[in-house]
Design brief:
The strands form 4 sheets. The protein has a 5-stranded antiparallel beta sheet. A 4-stranded antiparallel beta sheet has the order 11-12-13-14, with helices on both faces. A 3-stranded parallel beta sheet has the order 1-3-2, with helices on one face. The protein starts with a strand and ends with a helix. It is α+β, with helices and mostly antiparallel strands and 283 residues long. The structure holds flavin-adenine dinucleotide (FAD). The site of flavin-adenine dinucleotide (FAD) has 31 residues, from strand 2, helix 2, helix 5, helix 6 and strand 10.
Length: 283
């Protein structure tokens, strides 16, 4: 097995172009589990952990967007500027594994694995984030909705490195909630991110772990915008909240598996989304 440990992005891109099938590793919190269980047997590895360019974040000059490096660990998102500008991402980051996992695991790794239960992914979906990919001689930006193509499948091409993700800084409430089989160190059984853009008068709802990939509930988003003026807080009646949750549940596509039943997952996303909407209107 060969392990290349580049110290800057250019050297990593060069290594990836010379060996496009080499396996990247960032924090290793997904990959090492797979290797330990013999689910993957990479022959060549490119370790990205020592690349400072991947471990930064940047707020645009106009403060309209934030770009987060693929290798920035969750621990750096839990509070500070990122939590202020993208609170739903901070909430999701705080739910990931344990402090040890959060100081190694990254958004790039969550995107690389592309599990429907990945906690950062519903937030990126609800914010219509863009994924920035680079190869030695080119770069491209892909919408998160086109990046995630199926269960643990994404549209990254051989030789490409996920360098960062860019998302808007939204004026309005946003939040993330998940349900698991216990309170901590748990992979989502169902999760939900809700973002209200008070300036555009729009809501975005994305669900995790209830379909082959993250689900955006576009029908319910349109329906709610017709029921109420999302540019300002308004009274949400019990029946409106109830119907909102039911509509969200109908847009989910859960399955029965070792973590839960489809029926429980459908119920969970109805409750999570309803609570998030209620909170959005209280703040
Ligand atoms: C005990 C434990 C608890 C966990 N709990 C949670 C949880 O609560 N929520 C959750 O979402 N996840 C959880 N995970 C999974 C994991 O921590 C996350 O998915 C994390 O985001 C992975 O990041 P990483 O940097 O460690 O990825 P790695 O393991 O280094 O890589 C994962 C995949 O992404 C690819 N990759 C990584 N970086 C790049 C890049 N820059 N460009 C191209 N490809 C790249 C790798 O090649 C690999 O295929 C847990 C894992 C463990 C072991």
């Amino acid at each position: 097995m060969s392990v290349v440990v580049p110290r800057n992005l250019h050297d990593a891109l060069k290594a990836a172009s010379e060996n496009p099938s080499a396996q990247m590793i960032q924090g290793g919190t997904d990959l090492m589990v797979e290797i330990n269980f013999n689910h993957r047997k990479p022959t060549d590895i490119i370790a990205l952990r020592r690349i400072p360019e991947l471990r930064t974040y940047e707020i645009s000059k106009s403060s309209t967007h934030i770009t987060i490096g693929a290798g920035l660990p969750y621990q750096k998102m839990e509070d500070g500027e990122i939590a202020r500008f993208v609170p739903a991402l901070a909430q999701a980051a705080r739910t990931v594994g344990s402090p040890q996992i959060r100081s190694a695991g990254s958004i790039g790794g969550n995107l690389g694995t592309c599990s429907p239960a990945g906690d950062a992914l519903p937030v990126l979906s609800a914010l219509d984030a863009e994924i920035n990919l680079q190869s030695l001689n080119s770069s491209r930006t892909v919408s998160i909705h086109d990046f995630m193509v199926g269960v643990k499948r994404n549209s990254r091409q051989p030789g490409e490195i996920i360098v960062s993700t860019t998302m808007p800084i939204v004026s309005g409430w946003q939040g993330y909630s998940k349900v698991g089989v216990r309170n901590a160190m748990v992979i989502s059984v169902a999760s939900c991110c809700l973002v209200i853009d008070r300036i555009a008068g729009k809501i975005a709802v994305a669900l995790g772990a209830v379909g082959p990939t993250i689900i955006r509930c576009r029908e319910t988003e349109r329906w709610l915008a017709q029921q109420t003026d999302l540019k300002s807080k308004s009274i949400m009646t019990h029946s409106l909240l109830q119907e909102f949750g039911e509509r969200i549940a109908k847009e989910s596509k859960p399955i029965d598996d070792h973590r839960s039943t489809a029926a429980y997952r459908r119920h969970a996303v109805a409750v999570l989304s309803k609570r998030l909407l209620q909170r959005a209107n209280e703040k």
